[in-house]
What does this fold into?
Amino acid sequence: MVLEKLGRSLEQAIRKVRRLPIVDKDAINALIQDLQRALLSSDVKVELVFEMTENIKKDAMNTKLTKAKRKDFIIKLVHDELIKTLGGKPAPIRLKSGKSNVILLVGIQGSGKTTTVGKLARFYKNKGYKVAAVTTDTYRPGAYEQLVQLTNQIDVKCFGNPDEKNAIKIAVKETKKAINGGYDIILVDTAGRHKEEKELMLEMQKIESALKPNEVILVIDGTLGQLAYSQAEEFAKATNIGSIIVTKLDGTAKGGGALSACAATNQSIRFIGLGEKIDEFEEFDPTSFVGTLLGIPDIEGLVKKVQEAEVDIDPDMAKRMMRGKFTLDDLYYQLKSIKKVGKMKNILAMVGGGNIPDALKDDAERNLEKWEIVLNSMTKEEKENPKIIKKTRKRRIAIGSGSDYSTINRMLDQYNQMKKFMKRFLQMQKKGKGMPGVPGGMAQFLNKMGKDFKFS
Ligand SMILES: Nc1nc2c(ncn2[C@@H]2O[C@H](COP(=O)(O)OP(=O)(O)O)[C@@H](O)[C@H]2O)c(=O)[nH]1
Ligand SMILES: [Mg+2]
It folds into this structure.
């Protein structure tokens, strides 16, 4: 397993909590100590460890839940904090079909770029893409042969020119050849010597501006631990890093430090390298990664259970709301996500102190599908600013969606009420009056948002 030692100590800490008859203050303090020890020994930065554990402690101490739910809640706090530390799941690379997509790999020598080009080629080939590799490394003797050998294993074409000494020329010429060859994905390997070398950074910049890749991926050696931070920063200054691949996570005790350091640079980690072999590589998904680390295979089940006691708000929507924006789409998605959990009434009651009439709540649950059809007949402008929906527009929407006026009116009513309700909720937050019964995660989240958006 990756980060075996860290995983073992985290799992032990979680098991300890699970075994306790009740989770009291002492138990929380003991858990915090266990977590700190585990994270520090995985080379996670001291400040970050304290910030993480402080967050967990605060939420764990301040949240009132029933005894049974409390255990799961605290485990989920740990889980969420770890995921937050690892950054979210990156959006997939935007690959255009019918076009050649160029992915440029950068990083210092020995970080594992060439190996990773082979791994990526295999990964995308298995997904059905026509993949080619380009090597532009003119520094390392045998760099060209290294990649040829790797790509031969998986029957992927490798472009390069061992006789040319100018890396930028190679990059341009050989990538062009690959584009003409009609490849879907072209993986460009580069040289890397030392992060301080200005020349190297300049070369990267030139290759980037010549090739205009779909994505630049930084390859970082996981054995660096928290030192990965400064390296990632250095490269991010020079090139447009889109994501990071952390290699050599097999057999290093410092993986936690490397992963958290990379995430701290605000780049997402897209893949991780787990060995020298071409298939020792996987997509990085913080949720399942943390689930494995904590020894909680069914994190979904646990999350669901805790969700029943917790309010879940889409952070993007919350941000828009904080700026006073709340659209019909927001209403729809919010209700839909709540409906999925099947606890809409409880949740609305929880955040609103029961101020939304029952009839209204039931109405939303029942009408969600009808609303979807109505929404599909509306323009973006109308959804963002429903005020403009007057007679003529309403008629058009009714005809377009095959709905009657009452459905549309009902939805607009719901929207207005919900908007009013949200406004009141936000005002209360602004005044620092917490909502009774709102669990810590939500309250903390909104407080943080409040700070970000400077309420006063
Ligand atoms: N254990 C392990 N070794 C790796 C991994 N990725 C690369 N390596 C090794 O690291 C060394 C340098 O890799 P290379 O791809 O040549 O790095 P480059 O200089 O950045 O192109 C080689 O010996 C690789 O086999 C990995 O995920 N795990
Ligand atoms: Mg190389």
Observations:
- The beta strands are 101-106, 131-135, 157-159, 185-189, 215-221, 241-247, 268-273, 281-283.
- Residues 107, 109-115, 192, 247-248, 250-251, 273-276 surround guanosine-5'-diphosphate (ligand 1) (CB under 6 Å).
